[in-house]
Amino acid sequence: MNTKKIERRYDILRTLIAIGIALVLALMVIVFISENPLDAMKSFLFGPVSSFRRFANVIELMIPITFTALGICVMYQAAQFNLIGEGVFFFSGAVATWFALNLTLPAGVHAAVVILLSASVGALIALIPAILKVKWKASEVVSSIMMNYVLQLAGIFLLMYYMKDMASGFNASYIIPATAKLPVLIAKTRIHAGLIIVVVMIILVYLFLYKSKWGYEIRMTGENQNFAKYSGIKVNRVILYASLIGGFLAGMGGAIEILGMYTRFQWEKSPGYGWDGMLVAILAKKNPSLVPLSAFFLAYLRIGADVIARTSDVPVEFVSVIQAIVIMFIAAEMFLAGMKHRAITKESRKQLELKEGK
């Protein structure tokens, strides 16, 4: 077993232990704050699979989170901590609604065109923090966080002044045409065709990052920017197209969420899927193939928290405790570092002994 394999094994182990510790602490919290802790624990742990409809809710929630997580994985692989996914997701949802209302196209084609146009808008928006970094060395973290607020307000402006249905009785757009809606895949649920699209995108992003020249350039830039430069990789160009792809995926997620789950655009605040995608990307260690598992875990927690809030005296916000603990342990570089170092040292000695024996 080489060093890389040992490191990957301990990264997975660290993630699993972090999740385990978080769940144990969450259950301890339930014991202290609930009058019926056993029932509350049961609701939290098994509520999402207690009925087909609730499990369908988990799948429905996975779809938007997976899109933003894939976009963040691409950008993080290039060591670009561009946090624009939150704003792009929201604004692309608003833009998708506007395109859906103003384009007249046949069913199927309508939805495809709206998704591609909205995703392209998201890609161009995500390019802005990257350009600021490449040209003026501006921190992409700061610029993207500031832009998230601008994009949210821009989406609300678009809703209130260009799409609002005055007869609706609340702040909502006109009804999205049926030709632009994504079809439901499973009856009596809201699981829509976005599930098929997201599965395709998981495969494509993985192949792009690990089986293509451009993906190699992204990964090398993320590993060591100076080495990438000396190897002939145009680092600035990599930063730009990594952000472009990340924004495209987040924008696609926003459009698909609106066309698959809603009849009108009615968001007045961000649903938070950009931040959720960041957590999922961290859990997945920036690997697209692990994103579905991480997204399922987070979606399961969210639905479990919703069930426990409706069936017990435990507030839904306690799931934030779990998220915080998981992030803290995964981000802690020294967590299990000693165990990993000993395993690497032991393996190195074993390999050295084998060579000396020969």
Automatic annotation (TrEMBL):
Bilayer disposition of the protein: Multi-pass membrane protein
Classification via InterPro entries: ABC_transp_permease
Parts of the chain that traverse the membrane: 12-34, 54-76, 83-101, 107-132, 144-163, 191-210, 238-262, 318-339
Subcellular compartments: Cell membrane
Keyword vocabulary terms for this entry: Cell membrane, Membrane, Transmembrane, Transmembrane helix
Any one GO molecular-function label of the UniProt entry: transmembrane transporter activity
Domain of life: Bacteria
A Gene Ontology cellular-component term: plasma membrane
Name of this chain's protein: ABC transporter permease
Protein source organism: Youngiibacter fragilis 232.1
